[in-house]
Amino acid sequence: MGAVLKIADEKKAYALTDRGTFLAFKEKISLIVLNEGDPLLYNPYGIIAVNPAKHPHTDYVKAMALIGWITSPGGQALIKEFGKDRFGRPLFYPMAVK
Which of 73, 30, 71, 80 is nearest to 48 (CA)? Predict the structure, then answer.
């Protein structure tokens, strides 16, 4: 995604990107945000464990522990704060715990 932003900047073109990548490259490019917040641009992230019956080499118990941590109030609090210190706003919005 960073390469797309660099190319769009060089060509004075438009690009569709996620907030995190844009904020990470903001100081390196002259592009500006033209549209944000539209529900059509919603880009959720998810976490799932693979089926251990189909992939027996995986560690399902550890995968479920990670999922439990990420979706816990503590994990969601970290996600909510991630990026604020560097960019002044969060890069992600937690949804597992409201």
Answer: 71
For the residues of 50-67, what is the DSSP string, one character each?
--TTT-TTS-HHHHHHHH
Q: Measure CA 8 to chain center.
A: 21
Together in a domain, 19 and 38:
yes
The domain containing residue 2 runs over which residues? 1-43
Residues 92, 53 share a domain: yes
Q: How far apart are CA 16 and CA 19, in angstroms?
A: 10
Residue 41 in this model has a pLDDT that exceeds 90 = no
Comparing CA positions, the residue from 46, 56, 2 lying closest to residue 28 is 2
Give the three-class secondary structure for 92: coil
- Could you tell me if 50 and 94 lie in one domain? yes
25-29, 38-42, 54-58, 84-88: which has the minimum mean pLDDT? 38-42
